């Protein structure tokens, strides 16, 4: 009986290790670059390839992260691939979950992307325009 219990414990630990390795192997960073042009357009480009996008969220900072439950803009990517996204402009094949709000001058925001297979990227930017960005 003791041998069986020891074997079950070892099996449980082995399973935890395998699941942990699987989760690490299935996640990846989506690298983002934000540019704000002279007309106050906020453009986000993907630096390494074109991820299949699950959703995009723009939110204000909150604590150590961002206010994901209070989006400024949110779109569902339906696992489509695009090279870049402009704030407030819905890429072809995407669905809008939350219409874009004006970006307040001088305020910080996070642009967050979740891709397929556990991919995730977030970049903070400051709206340096003198007027609110309205799309």
From TrEMBL:
| PROSITE patterns cross-referenced by the UniProt entry | PROKAR_LIPOPROTEIN
Superkingdom of origin organism: Bacteria
Output this protein's name: DUF4249 family protein
Gene source species: Photobacterium galatheae
List the taxonomic lineage. Bacteria, Pseudomonadati, Pseudomonadota, Gammaproteobacteria, Vibrionales
């Amino acid at each position: 009986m003791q041998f069986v219990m020891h074997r079950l414990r070892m099996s449980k630990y082995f399973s935890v290790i395998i699941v942990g390795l699987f989760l690490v192997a299935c996640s990846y960073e989506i690298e983002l670059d934000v540019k704000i042009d002279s007309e106050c357009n906020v453009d986000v480009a993907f630096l390494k390839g074109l991820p299949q996008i699950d959703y995009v969220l723009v939110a204000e900072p909150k604590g150590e992260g961002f206010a994901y439950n209070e989006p400024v803009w949110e779109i569902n990517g339906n696992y489509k691939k695009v090279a870049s996204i402009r704030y407030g402009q819905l890429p072809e094949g995407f669905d809008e979950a939350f219409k874009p709000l004006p970006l307040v001058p001088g305020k910080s925001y996070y642009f967050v992307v979740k891709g397929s297979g556990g991919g995730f990227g977030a970049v903070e930017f400051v709206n340096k325009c003198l007027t609110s960005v309205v799309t």
